[in-house]
Please model this.
Amino acid sequence: MSEIALSISMLSLVAVLGLWIGSWKVYGVGLGIGGVLFGGIFVGHFSTQYGIELDMHTLHFIQEFGLILFVYTIGIQVGPGFFASLRSSGMRLNGFAALLVLLSCIVTALLYKLFDVPLPIILGIFSGAVTNTPSLGAGQQIMGELGVSADLLEQTGMGYAIAYPFGICGILFTMWIIRWFFRININDEADSFDDNSGQKSSNLASLNVELHNINLDGLMIKDIPVINSGRVVCSRLKHNGELLVPMASSIVKMGDLLHLVGDVASVNEARIIIGEVVDTSLSTKGTNLRSVRVVVTADDVLNKTIRELNLIETYDVVISRLHRSGIELVPSSSTSLQFGDILNLVGRQDAIDAVGAVVGNAEQKLQQVQMLPVFIGIGLGMLVGSIPITIPGFPVALKLGLAGGPLVVALILARIGSIGKLYWFMPPSANLALREIGIVLFLAVVGLKSGGGFVHTLVEGDGLIWMCYGIAITFIPLIVVGFIARIFAKINYLTICGMLAGSMTDPPALAFANGLHPTSGASALAYATVYPLVMCLRILSPQIMALLLWAG
Model:
């Protein structure tokens, strides 16, 4: 058997063993996808013992490509909600993430000073404890430029290997401690996140309001300020006992009933201005109007605004709600349509059919994956990740690398939605499959590489001491920040898990957090919110520590 075939076979063995280990549960908590790392260490140890030679070039490629697949699909998944999260809770989450990075640097510097640990080794332990491979590369590079010998640089890598497995366990254990200490119910946390972020249909309120404000009598709907703001949609109008699709030019009279849709605060504001809530049904049942959902799949309407489509004037159809990537939005006239958007239409059946033909409404397209945009996105991510950012006074240029570049590009492309006939929508099942394959490949290779010298260093060398240093660097910042975020900031538990995983730039921890409640996007969104900043800080921090501690 060739070395390449043998390497792939060993990776398959690691994946099977690791996923089996990850399925074990202790008090309802398991390693999940993180079990693949320990499966890799186990197989890597015995491979070295029996002299099994693997193709390291193949393993290196698989490791990097697996990581690229994982972070790219994460970016595509959370992109539509990422920028909105920055406006709401993003600054606070990034503040906690930066605090965690700072605390890990402080703990590392204290260990270096108190126990006189060689600088290359403590930097390796630091990178492993915070589970950040680019940090290891940056630390080794600057150590090389400072004249450290090749032998000591190899010790940097071994320190990383010793601390890395327990770095992952530390994050998982911290999540479990927080969950146990605060008696957290996962389903309640998921519901709370959905309520607060707009990912439940109940987040958009609807009211039937009777016009009582004499100042609005005789005005056209487009002239009513609260409806014209884009925060509230009037999807049905009952005038003289007849249910109508309201147009911008429709004139309202005293006693007319309006069906309003929007966020709770905006709908209540509209109620105060327009009149009183009435317990009268404005259902389309028994009338010639229908309420139907259609999906946007036609290339011709992508990136067009609802105003440009002019559906009300042309077809006498109104869009009452818009669903995008699981988030329900108020469809204002300036909202641009993206592939996969789900529109709630109100109008006559024949008119709705005509609108469906315009926007596509081909649901089978949602199950198809456009591979061209996937590789365009990955390629652009490689370019962005390779751009050197020179900082005065530092001998090593900052780079986002193979992990940060694809993530940033995926977030931007998912937010854009489409360019011409290229769209970055990915079916959830396809996204999940690529994401899981990527993280399994990445962890399998990391485990195989670490397994060879892991036991020897752990048992016969200074491995146990290094492990203790790594545990301190991992646990202290995580526990401190996690408890502060829950006690003082009252942050959602699933969001905390994603923030902690992102602060450690740890895909296995994110996979574990996602597994706590598979249908909630809270952890993935928090991870992507803090990841770009943290990746820069993690790459920069070993360089700053090396320069400061070396000079000291």
Remarks:
- The longest strand covers residues 204-211.
- The radius of gyration is 27 Å.
- DSSP finds 19 helices and eleven strands in the chain.
